[in-house]
Each structure stands twice: as structure tokens, then as C-alpha cells.
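Now for my pick.
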Amino acid sequence: VIFKERELWVITGDDYTDWSLKFIDAVGCYNQSLIVLLNGYIAWVDYRGVYIWDGANKPIYCSRLIENMFQDDGDIDKSYLARGVGVYYRKYNQIVWALSHRAKGTQKFLLKMDMRLSLPQISQSLDTRILEAAFTFDNQTVGEMYAVAAFLPSGESDETMFIGDAAGQTFKMYNGTSDNTGSIDFNYKTK
């Protein structure tokens, strides 16, 4: 899969002598950190909204219900899409994107797509290319978010989400049913 800023392409073939480049759609992604893999799908944020793709058909537009946020005068500050990040948080079955918001601030707005409510509609939407996805929003006060990761720690049964801010701090965001947002001290050495 090749994402250009406003285009989606696929390379097919078996080796370097047998390949072809196929144009899929005029929908792209400005920043690879906004691309999220989940359950056999790829989801991402572009200038016009949120898309999800099964790899076979055209991408499905998911954000019709919140498209006013992505308009030129909308709440999402698209001039900062290069700083945006996304992650699939399996525990709550949602995709979380940290984006810039005109009123909330740079990298302080979480856009969450609830996949429990959205995924069942995808098979019905493959022909129409529009999905009425379920979104929720969250404002963060821990600082500008530039990294996000969700993982299942070794020996534990509870998935944890961490974010990183512009000051180099790491915060534990979601674990269990709480929103901890407490700074985690760490250091590293380079050789």
C-alpha cells in the first residue's frame, strides 16, 4: 500500500521483475502516524475526514456525521496533521487519534472511532463507500501529544495506553477503567 498526500495506490506482484502499480482512489494520508491497522482493515485521517479500507474495494468514508469538523473553517486544525498520531486500542475496540483542535489547542484533542458500533456496518457499506461511524471526543490537559501506543504488558491481562508529549514525558492514559494521566519517569542511554 502506498499513501500519497491525496492518493492511495497498491503495488502488486511476486518479485521485482513482476509488479504493477494500481491507483485505488483520490484519498490519501498526509502522515503515516495517522494510519492505524485493525482486524484486517486500515483506517486513517486525511484532510476531508476519516476513512477505512479493506484492501480490496475503494476506501469507505466514515466521518459524514462529523464532517463539519474537517471543513476549512472546522474545529480540526488541518495545518497540524503532520503532527497527528493514531492507535488501535483493542481493550475498548476503538481507534484513537491525537489531533490539533482550533479551540482546544495543538495536539490536545482525541478523536475516537468506536469500532464496536462501526465495524458491523462495514460489510453493508462496501458498495456505498459511506459509513455512519460512531465517534466520541476527549480533550487532554497533559500537554501536546506526539506519540501514542497501546499494548498488553507481559504477564498482565489488561491492555494499557501510553502517550508522549513534546517535553519528552510519557503518560499512562488508560488502564482498567481509569484515566490516570500520571507522568512516568524513565531514562535511556545511547552508545
Summary: The longest strand covers residues 105-114. The CA atoms of residues 4 and 28 lie 5 Å apart. The radius of gyration is 18 Å.
